[in-house]
């Protein structure tokens, strides 16, 4: 191999490595400086974070570990059942959600959530986060939301599919 071919091979290898690192390292900078790897999957529903339509959410632990979610609803499902995922809620440093209106990452504990909205979400009932209360109120009105809640007011029940109870007709006429 002559010197020109060797240089070309080295350059091509470097270019390939550079582009491969860009594709495999798609990240979002979180407000605290942590990075959320968008190539990971949500631990609750197993969807790729990069395919999130509602906006990603993340929990940053004290040891620097970042767990990502494809939406705020799955973040809450994880948060309320953290033992199932072998995590310790006492070691959570920060929690972030994507503001549904602005698509910016915000502190989940400061956000306002619209619950029970009649907007289709892939994983069932969703918590739609907003930084601005007026935006949350408008969204609630526009999408027939049931309530507005702070982080501490959201419950697992708010994010669980409700099964309608069926009354059986036993043929009795009264």
Automatic annotation (TrEMBL):
Keywords: Lipoprotein, Signal. InterPro entries: N2O_reductase_NosL (IPR008719). It comes from the Bacteria. Residues 1-25 form the signal peptide. PANTHER family: HTH-TYPE TRANSCRIPTIONAL REPRESSOR YCNK (PTHR41247). This is Putative lipoprotein involved in nitrous oxide reduction. It comes from Desulfomonile tiedjei (strain ATCC 49306 / DSM 6799 / DCB-1).
